[in-house]
Design brief:
Layout: H1 2-48, H2 63-70, H3 72-91, E1 101-104, E2 109-113, E3 123-128, H4 145-148, E4 149-153, E5 156-159, E6 165-169, E7 181-184, E8 200-201, E9 205-212, E10 217-223, E11 232-233, E12 238-245, E13 254-266, E14 269-273, H5 276-280, E15 288-297, E16 302-306, E17 312-313, E18 330-338, H6 342-354, E19 359-364, H7 371-380, E20 385-389, H8 396-407, E21 411-416, E22 421-424, H9 426-430, H10 442-448, E23 456-465, H11 479-482, E24 485-486, E25 493-498, E26 520-523, E27 530-533, H12 539-542, E28 589-590, H13 593-601
Parallel strand pairs: 1-8, 18-19, 18-21, 19-20, 23-26, 23-27
Antiparallel strand pairs: 1-2, 2-6, 3-4, 3-7, 5-6, 9-10, 10-14, 11-13, 12-13, 12-15, 13-14, 15-16, 15-17, 21-25, 22-27, 23-25, 24-28
Helix pairs in contact: 6-7
């Protein structure tokens, strides 16, 4: 019986081999036809792109993927299948945690995860020990996992965008890899998962990208190009690359790559032409990774380098054309970037709402002081505030460029100023006319006078810097009431801009933006409006500035550079040590104008409390 079975199996194998041979012969005869047909389609598409400024160059290392890409319907299916795969993976809460990308910062490692964390997740960082050839092996020859990784709790977690989350882990010890992984506390873990991972250094990486559908471009944010600050750079030496894949290293694990031209470059922002496939399907771009390339080496022997990238395009409501065009725009919005300034946010929002600000964009640069609860409370009180996690340190200019792009679809005017800066209108506040509270909507009325101006695209207001005003502890009723002594002369200015009139580079120096050709700024006279900048507060609050500055081109105060700059406090060294008589410094003029106005019109008549002192949570 066994002999009959074996002979029957041999006959089946012969038939399978014969069928395989015939199929192989059939394909070999038709391979030239397939290649010719593929080449014909490739030339046809090149002719379509001939008169467009973008160069459409598929990489021909994966022939089947490239052939599919060259057909518009096939490319749509690739994007759609990739989108569905991402969405399905995010719908399974019980799925294991997979780290998509890692970035090595000076004081922590940032992990990017392609799904949302569960509300009650307790996560741990998993560190893999570097191999030294002397590790204890198990019986099957594999390394003992209990000897080869270490566990530490995460520093913090956050939602990054519609589909991704981030986690911050402590830096590894010297004998452990930077390829840190995540696991749920008490859960199972595949200890081999992170061995081949990579952590990209923060000073050389593409970290963010967003589609600007109005210009058929992608705006890409980059560290490592070392472009000159505060001016435009030549984009012709740069190239833009779009690909599918889970690896930020452009040399590995990418299904296909499309290359286009960079059309502008300034500081850390590069604007790239979109490939036609993405241009025609902006709502199906989930997970398309973007990077920037450049030439190095000599002119005779240039070497093209592509930067590692963690930047992926994710379609959203603002990506789809006409989504927001039917909505009425807010007349005036505000954008700020902060780190651990949650206690100041309520006063800043509530006060400026009275002046006419309708919408707030808060870019949170790694705060851990409960700012989410403050934003939630403001939302419960009908303030239109959104918080965007912005984990990229020292990128305030880039963050403002990103905010300007976002605000353009919702706002006519957007102001860029900090949560310790408050607009004050001396004439409107002091000379009351008619019934009601003076000064209501003063800021919105100011900008709306120029909403249809053919030349004005930016309004600049001078800042007066206030000192500790004799205080030793933070004022309980807020900065507008507590700090009343300032320097005589104004320092710097802040700007409110027409969001649709910014230069295509989105170039800014924090205090103001570059405008489109033909538009200019307007300086507001001091007797009309000024900004009270509560810059030098009590030492307990002020010393936080020594931790890290958020602006890209402002030197951190621990560094012994630019000690005479206005970005520093005069007379301070490089250590957070309170100078003698700090509470009496920076006091040349007593100015109680804003304090008198706030207490006169905002305080509860019965209790004397101010609106931002109350809490709903």
């Amino acid at each position: 019986m066994s002999g009959m079975d074996s002979s029957e199996q041999r006959r089946k194998r012969k038939r399978m081999l014969r069928s395989y041979s015939q199929a192989k012969h059939y394909l070999s005869l038709r391979r030239p036809l397939i290649l010719c047909f593929s080449f014909f389609i490739f030339l046809l598409l090149l002719s379509f792109e001939r008169f467009r400024p973008a160069s459409f160059r598929p990489v021909l290392t994966a022939s089947t993927t490239t052939l599919s890409l060259l057909s518009s319907t096939a490319s749509n299916s690739i994007l759609e299948s990739f989108t569905n795969r991402n969405r399905n993976s995010n719908s399974r809460d019980s799925s294991p945690l997979r780290v998509q990308d890692r970035i090595l910062f000076p004081d922590h490692i940032l992990l990017i995860v392609p799904n949302r964390f569960r509300q009650n997740d307790q996560l741990e960082c998993v560190y893999h020990r570097l191999s030294n050839g002397s590790d204890e092996l198990l019986q099957d020859g594999e390394k003992n996992p209990h000897l080869d990784f270490a566990i530490r709790p995460v520093l913090s977690t956050d939602v990054y965008d519609e589909l991704r989350s981030i986690a911050r882990c402590p830096l590894p010890s010297n004998n452990y890899s930077e390829a840190v992984d995540l696991r749920r506390r008490g859960g199972s873990y595949d200890w081999t998962a992170g061995i081949n991972g990579t952590a990209y250094p923060w000073d050389r990486v593409v970290y963010e990208a967003v589609i600007d559908i109005d210009g058929d471009t992608a705006v890409v944010f980059v560290k490592g190009l070392n472009l000159r600050p505060h001016r435009k750079s030549d984009p012709t030496r740069l190239t833009c690359h779009f690909g599918l894949g889970n690896n930020g290293n452009w040399e590995k694990d990418l299904g296909f790559v499309l290359t286009t031209e960079a059309v502008t470059a300034a500081q850390e922002v590069v604007r790239c032409l979109l490939p036609r496939t993405i241009r025609n399907n902006p709502d199906k771009t989930h997970g398309v990774r973007v990077t920037i390339g450049y030439n190095t080496g000599s002119a005779r022997a240039p070497v093209h380098v592509t930067l590692p990238s963690v930047a992926t395009l994710y379609s959203s409501k603002s990506t789809v054309r006409n989504e927001n065009q039917k909505k009425k725009k807010h007349e005036l919005c505000a954008c700020t970037m902060l780190w651990n300034q949650a206690p100041a946010l309520k006063e800043w929002v509530m006060y400026h709402a009275w002046l006419g600000v309708e919408r707030w964009f808060v870019y949170d640069n790694n705060s851990d002081d409960g700012i989410e609860d403050v934003v939630q409370e403001l939302e419960l009180q009908a303030y239109n505030v959104s918080r965007q996690s912005w984990p990229w340190i020292k990128t305030q200019e880039a963050g403002f460029s990103r905010c300007a792009l976002r605000a353009r679809d919702e706002c006519h005017w957007v102001g860029f100023f900090d949560v310790d800066e408050f607009f004050y209108f001396p004439r409107a506040f002091r000379h009351h006319r008619g019934d009601g509270v003076p000064g209501e909507n003063s800021l919105r009325n100011l900008v709306s006078n120029y909403s249809y101006s053919p030349t004005i695209g930016e309004i600049r207001t001078d800042c007066h810097s206030f000192g500790p005003s004799g205080l030793s502890s933070h004022p309980s009723q807020g900065v507008t009431v507590g700090y009343t002594c300032r320097l005589q002369s104004p320092e710097r200015h802040k700007s409110i801009v027409r969001a649709d009139l910014l230069d295509v580079t989105l170039l800014n120096v924090v205090h103001h933006f570059r405008l489109r050709q033909g538009f200019r700024h307007l300086n507001v006279p001091e007797n009309v409006a000024v900004i009270n900048h509560y810059k030098y507060q009590v030492w307990e609050t002020f010393r936080a500035k020594f931790f890290r500055r958020v602006a890209t081109y402002v030197v951190d105060w621990q560094e012994d550079q630019n000690q005479g700059s206005k970005d520093r406090a005069p007379g301070l060294g490089t250590e957070a040590i309170e100078p003698p008589n700090w509470r009496l410094r920076f006091c040349e003029v007593w100015d109680t104008g804003l304090k008198d106005y706030v207490l006169g019109y905002f305080a509860d008549p019965a209790t004397g409390s101010l609106p931002w002192e109350k809490s709903l949570l």
